[in-house]
Amino acid sequence: MNNIWKKVRVNLRSYYKLRTGISNLFLRSISLSAKFILTIYIAKYYSTVELGMFNLFTISITILMYFVGWDFYTYSNREILKNKDENKNIILNQLLFHTVIFIFLSPFIGIIFLINIIPIKYILIFYILLYLESISQEIYRILIAMSYSVKANIVFLVRTAFWIYLFIFLGFSSSKGSIEFSAIYYLWGTSSFISIVLGGYFIYKKMDFKSKDFTIKINWIKKGAIVSFPFFLSTILLKTIEFADRYIIDFYFGKEFVGFYSFFFSIANITNIFVVTGVISIIYPRLIVLYENNNLNEFDFHIKKMIKQVILVSFFLSIILIISIHPILNIIGKREFKDYVHVFYILLGSSFLLNLSYIPHYILYAYGLDKKIIKSVAIAVVISLVLSLFLIPTYGLVGAATSLLATNFSILLLKMLYLTKTKVK
Predict the structure, then answer these.
(1) Which of 211, 269, 397, 424 is the most buried (most CB within 10 A)?
(2) Is residue 294 left, alpha or beta, with left meaning phi > 0 and alpha meaning psi from -120 to 50?
(3) How far apart are the first and last CA of the chain?
(4) CA atoms within 13 A on the CB side of 3
(5) For the chain, what is the domain count?
(6) Which domain, by its residues, includes 127?
(7) Are 136 and 157 within 8 A, CB to CB?
């Protein structure tokens, strides 16, 4: 009888894990599809200048979110797992830290408006969105740390996709097939705010916030900022490689060309999104556990599994995108996009190389060799900036795409080099 109940419990746990996994995959798929659909919609119904402007706006928000976030979650999430009785204090101190960083950065953020990367008329909504997006992102991460992955992905869906589908729906509901473009920023801000309220409610329901024993822990915050700094530095270096070319293109050629480049980048980057969410995020936590437990046979098996899946997913998605790109351009119906389609193929090759670089990256990460990862990315940033500044003024979008291709190849080469030289105990 006891054995029967044990089997029932095991089967129930397996069922709930499967159901949770499917729910998370469904929610993430809706969220990830949204930006792809939005890119095509803007390209079809709005000007390329508006597409470029929107891309510069979103990547500026994204980069500054990393500064506000400081990758502090890499420290605080561990604290949440270790000290469950202190979760209220941990969460409130973490949100206080992000708010202080936002206030400190605010005067410096104004530079992007002074040099006209983003028009001054968007300054208020930009600041509001930056703060709301930063807090919503951290609430999502807190929910993940608390093992509420479905609730976390609901928050993520509201923050990243709800406003996009609403914007497109309102556009198709109008007689022109589109509405005033500035409406997208206000819909985005509203969705971010709703996601914070929703996420805050989920956390509040699971925690005692009625007691008044909150204390500001300056030393805890300082320690977290120091511990998180290497992760923050690595992230900023990677984002410099990913986004610096847009600002250089804007400087030399204007926002219309940023629009062309960002469109093709968004399509090519689909391979990267699927590899990270569908392969890497599933396998790499297992690699860390296996290596720490000295289970080297299983560790080697999972490495081979990761290599196989990364290559196969990257290859087949690349083929699908090569087949799909001209039908997509036909849907948009603008000749000028077809004139730059060769840029897409270079960016697709770049995305493929980036995916391959994740293989040595996460093996080094499992080994705990963070410094070698940071060193390889730091060298790649220098290569990226030198190539971009040399190639983009002369060769335009082809120069930008070629620079990214060469940079991602250098990242792959450097990480492979560090890995082959590594002696693991």
Answers:
(1) 397
(2) left
(3) 46
(4) 0
(5) 2
(6) 1-216
(7) no
User: Any idea which residue has 């930008």 for tokens?
Assistant: 400
369 shares its domain with 419: yes
- What token pair was written down for 129? 């969105």
| Each residue's pLDDT expressed in tens, for the chain with a length of 425 residues | 555 555 545 454 554 555 666 776 677 778 878 988 999 999 999 999 999 999 999 999 999 999 999 999 888 988 887 877 788 889 999 999 999 999 999 999 999 999 999 999 999 999 999 999 999 999 998 998 888 888 988 999 999 999 999 999 999 998 777 899 999 999 999 999 999 999 999 998 877 666 667 788 999 999 999 999 988 998 899 899 999 999 999 999 999 999 999 999 999 999 998 888 778 877 877 888 788 888 888 889 989 999 999 999 999 999 999 999 999 999 999 999 999 999 999 999 999 999 999 999 989 888 888 888 889 999 999 999 999 999 999 999 999 999 999 999 999 999 999 998 876 55
Structural domain contains residue 46: yes
How would you write the chain as a 3-class SS string?
A: CHHHHHHHHHHHHHHHHHHHHHHHHHHHHHHHHHHHHHHHHHHHHCCHHHHHHHHHHHHHHHHHHHHHHCCCHHHHHHHHHHCHHHHHHHHHHHHHHHHHHHHHHHHHHCHHHHCCCCCHHHHHHHHHHHHHHHHHHHHHHHHHHCCCHHHHHHHHHHHHHHHHHHHHHHHHHCCCCCCCCCHHHHHHHHHHHHHHHHHHHHHHHCCCCCCCCCCCCHHHHHHHHHHHHHHHHHHHHHHHHHHHHHHHHHHHHCHHHHHHHHHHHHHHCHHHHHHHHHHHHHHHHHHHHHHHCCCHHHHHHHHHHHHHHHHHHHHHHHHHHHHHHHHHHHHHCCHHHHHCHHHHHHHHHHHHHHHHHHHHHHHHHHHCCHHHHHHHHHHHHHHHHHHHHHHHHHHHHHHHHHHHHHHHHHHHHHHHHHHHHCCCC
Query: 43, 334 in Cβ contact below 8 A?
Result: yes
Q: Which two tokens stand for residue 297?
A: 């046979």
Say if residue 210 is in the same domain as residue 263. Answer: no
Please tell me the distance from the alpha carbon of residue 122 to that of residue 184, in angstroms, as a whole number.
Answer: 12
Domain final position from 152, 185, 216: 216
